[in-house]
Amino acid sequence: MNNVRWLDEVKFNEQGLVPAIAQHHQTGRVLMVAWMNREALALTAEKNQAVYFSRSRNKLWHKGEESGHFQTVHEIRLDCDADVIVLQIEQHGGIACHTGRESCFYRKLTPQGWEIVDAQIKDPSQIYAAEKSSNPHTIAMNASNAQSEQVEVLSYLGQMMTERKTSDPDSSYVAKLYHKGLNKILEKIGEEGVETILAAKEFQLVANEDNKNDLIYEVADLWFHTIVMLGHFDLDPQLVLNELARRQGLSGLVEKANRSH
């Protein structure tokens, strides 16, 4: 969005923040609540991916930057007092909470107190990468774990593309792309390719945090739309990872990781 006057209508608090509620765009379930400053809200609208502001770290926080569980934003709404944002989102990986659950609201009040009613989908220790170590054995283990995570993300995206191809075009962004056909998908890949080039040029000129994040977002958009294109031909994105692994002599490790899922 080039016109940012709409941002002036949002009533940010004294700290320049506004609460943002992330809600599943199909089920309506509230998945999490976070904070946004003006820049985070502008980036969310521009990128169609949720970007929040971390008060503890005092910095922008692109949801999924560590876990890989990004949020595609389908709709942004502002309440009647203009001081609360609601995001209609698609939660990649099915996990919004840092505890490894679908929603941060996994506890229900009962006569016995707060009861956990949502199962943990994945152990957080498997979601967030450990700190790098100079120990060669640890590096090898981290590399293997990273490959497993790549397989998991690609597997999820591949399954999602298969589902979206037969979905109602109004149900999701990807379903709408498939409904419009291959030319539209290729057009988006071209757009994202150009935006990636421009972002790389900007980062080369000024290597600051904002330009780095912008480059990462654009590459993610480019990769995502190429996976949509593969889905058009019923090609599993894992095939691309296998080819990259073959070129680097890592195919055996990737195949092993793939068998474990």
What does this structure look like?
The chain has 261 residues and is of the alpha+beta class. Helix content is 46%, strand content 17%. It has eight helices and eight strands. Strand 7 and strand 8 form a beta hairpin. The chain is globular. The N and C termini lie far apart (40 Å).
Can I get a quick summary?
With 261 residues, the chain is of the alpha+beta class.
Mean pLDDT: 83
Low-confidence stretches: 130-151
Count of β-strands: 8
Alpha-beta classification: alpha+beta
Helical percentage: 40-55%
Strand order of the largest sheet: 2-1-6-5
Order of helices and strands: EEHEEEEEEHHHHHHH
Report the C-alpha radius of gyration, rounded: 20 Å
Basic shape: globular
What is the CA–CA distance across the termini?
40 Å
The largest β sheet comes out as: 4 strands, mixed
Number of helices: 8
Tell me the strand percentage band.
15-25%
Write the SSE topology.
Layout: E1 18-24, E2 30-36, H1 38-47, E3 51-54, E4 59-62, E5 71-78, E6 85-91, E7 107-110, E8 113-116, H2 124-127, H3 136-165, H4 173-180, H5 182-205, H6 209-232, H7 238-248, H8 251-259
Parallel strand pairs: 1-6
Antiparallel strand pairs: 1-2, 3-4, 5-6, 7-8
Helix pairs in contact: 3-6, 3-8, 5-6, 7-8
Output the keywords.
8 helices, two-stranded antiparallel sheet, 17% strand, 261 residues, 4-stranded mixed sheet, single chain
